[in-house]
Design brief:
The chain is mainly α. The protein has a single domain, classed as Arc Repressor Mutant, subunit A, CATH 1.10.10.10. The chain contains 6 helices and 3 strands. Strands 1-3-2 form a 3-stranded antiparallel beta sheet. The longest helix has 22 residues. It is elongated.
Length: 138
């Protein structure tokens, strides 16, 4: 197995461990990902959300309608251009995202708990480089 294959397998295992589990939400993981993106970008248009999710605008419209029915987002038309629909989190949607993120942070803390300070600093430096590469490629 090549080093790249080992890294791929290691990252897959870590990402799988960090996936939200045992949630009592009535939405899919892709919908949850959208809520998390809205948490970081408080107001998005449907077209921006579709581009981020790499789905069609009609598919994103359907997803937004479902999330609105669940009470997790608000949709509103642009005052100047009625074709544009803006979406944002409701307080309940924000609460759900915060709950999921708290769970994931705890799982991450479990993963790095046994690392000494030097290993944590090294990991942070490597992840910063990878994060930089993501911003350059994305």
């Amino acid at each position: 197995m090549s080093l790249e294959d080992q890294i791929d397998e290691q990252l897959f295992t870590i990402m799988d461990f960090l996936k939200p589990r045992n949630l009592t939400l009535s939405i899919s993981l892709p919908h949850l990902a959208m809520l998390r993106w809205l948490y970081r970008n408080p107001v998005l248009s449907i077209s921006m959300a579709a581009a981020y999710s790499q789905v069609s605008q009609p598919a994103m419209t359907q997803a937004a309608q479902k999330l609105e029915r669940e009470g997790w987002i608000i949709r509103r038309r642009d005052e100047n251009d009625q074709r544009v629909v803006w979406i944002s989190l409701t307080p309940e949607g924000r609460k759900h995202v915060e709950s999921v993120e708290a769970m994931q942070h705890e799982r991450l803390r479990q993963l790095i708990r046994n690392l000494d300070a030097e290993d944590k600093e090294s990991l942070s430096r490597v992840l910063a480089k990878i994060q930089h590469n993501v911003s350059q490629l994305g």
